[in-house]
Write a structure and sequence with these properties.
7 helices, about 0% strand, mainly alpha
């Protein structure tokens, strides 16, 4: 639509808060990528064990599922930083500069509120699994607080990135919706 560039990172300027959040989001993106690579490697190992060695697998399927879900959640702030989420910019393009800025502040504020609620319940769910010592009902019997940790970590980092985006728009470091004035 408006932007043809494939990667439009948020601007951080000289502000230390924006730089730290950008670094954390980038680190989360690298961790997410590492989880995907690990899931692919485990899948290849599982295929080898099943079809070449004719053996059974105990932990591989469950581990791959947890890694892919964890990679999705932990990768959220990095995708937000790169503006990789689905964006419909028809309305922001049609608005004048001040209205576009107000719409950006509104949408970021609502996003912060929604992700804040998801963080709250994600943390509660993780803590419940930790406190009760939940384990999966599989042969592997993984302690569920470990994969559930992706909920508060992913949503917490996404919330931090959204706050940084809102701060960037309010301070003028970042253009609303990443769109230049026409």
């Amino acid at each position: 639509m408006a932007g043809q560039n494939s990667v439009a990172e948020t601007r951080v300027g000289d502000h230390p808060f924006l730089r730290v959040v950008a670094a954390l989001s980038t680190l989360a993106g690298w961790c997410s990528a590492a989880m995907i690579v690990a899931a692919v490697a485990i899948t290849c190992q599982m295929i080898f064990v099943r079809f070449v060695l004719n053996g059974s697998t105990v932990w591989q399927t469950e581990m791959v599922i947890y890694l892919v879900i964890g990679a999705t959640l932990v990768g959220l702030p990095y995708v937000q930083r790169l503006r990789g989420h689905v964006n419909v910019d028809l309305i922001p393009l049609a608005l004048p500069r001040q209205a576009r800025r107000a719409l950006a502040v509104l949408t970021l504020s609502l996003s912060i509120a929604i992700i804040g609620v998801m963080l709250w319940y994600g943390y509660d769910y993780w803590h419940f699994a930790w406190d009760r010592g939940w384990k999966s009902d599989t042969v592997w019997g993984v302690r569920l607080w470990i994969p559930y940790l992706a909920l508060p970590v992913g949503f917490g980092l996404l919330l931090l990135q959204l706050v940084a985006d809102l701060f960037g728009v309010l301070s003028g470091t970042e253009k609303p919706f990443g769109l230049e004035d026409s």
